[in-house]
Each structure stands twice: as structure tokens, then as C-alpha cells.
Amino acid sequence: MSDSVVREFATNDWSVYRTRFLIRAKQLRRPLSFKDALGREHHGSPGDYLVQSSEGLFRIAPREIFEDIYVVMENIEDQSRSWTAPLSRQRLSA
């Protein structure tokens, strides 16, 4: 990395961001592999998270990344009932 690039990153003009989407997630207890609706393969290990987006799509998030980004929300049981894409709709295999 050149000195000018390092100086550019060393400035104090950084912005703070937050994620804007709500997701549902479940920590995996055993390995999980599946192919999503777009044909992409996903693989997770115990401790990783199975994540469902608000659009109903599933993905695997590594534990370290997931726990660094997301914070659990309490008392949203009523909201969780409105999610329309149950896990059984996609081909998942343990």
C-alpha cells in the first residue's frame, strides 16, 4: 500500500453504519448444507447461523461474522409470525 493511500485511510472522516434489515436466525447444532433458490450451495458448521432474510431467502453466516454484526431483539414474537417462507419450502439437508 502506498504512503498516500495509508494517509487517506488514516483521516478522521470515517462514518458509522448499521444494518437496516431485520432477519431471523438460528444457530446450527450440526453441519448443514443446502442449495438456495438461485442454485447457490451453502454449507455451515455447528456454531454458524442459518439466516432467513425478510424476503424469505436463506443463507449461512459464519459465527464470527454474524455475532459481530447482529444483536438479538427481545419480545418480537408477534412479528416473527408474519414471516412467510418457512424452512420447509427450500431443499435443506443436514
Task: Provide a descriptive summary of the structure in words.
With 94 residues, the chain is of the alpha+beta class. It has one domain. It has a three-stranded antiparallel β-sheet. About 6% of the residues have low confidence.
Low-confidence stretches: 85-90
Q: How far apart lie the N and C ends?
A: 43 Å
Counted up, domains total 1
Number of E-type strands = 6
Q: Roughly how much helix do the residues carry, as a percent range?
A: 10-25%
Secondary-structure map:
Blueprint lengths: L2 H7 L14 E4 L4 E4 L5 E4 L4 E4 L5 E4 L1 H7 L7 H4 L11 E2 L1
Short description:
Helix content is 19%, strand content 23%.
Features:
single chain; 94 residues; alpha+beta; three-stranded antiparallel sheet; 3 helices; 6 strands; 19% helix
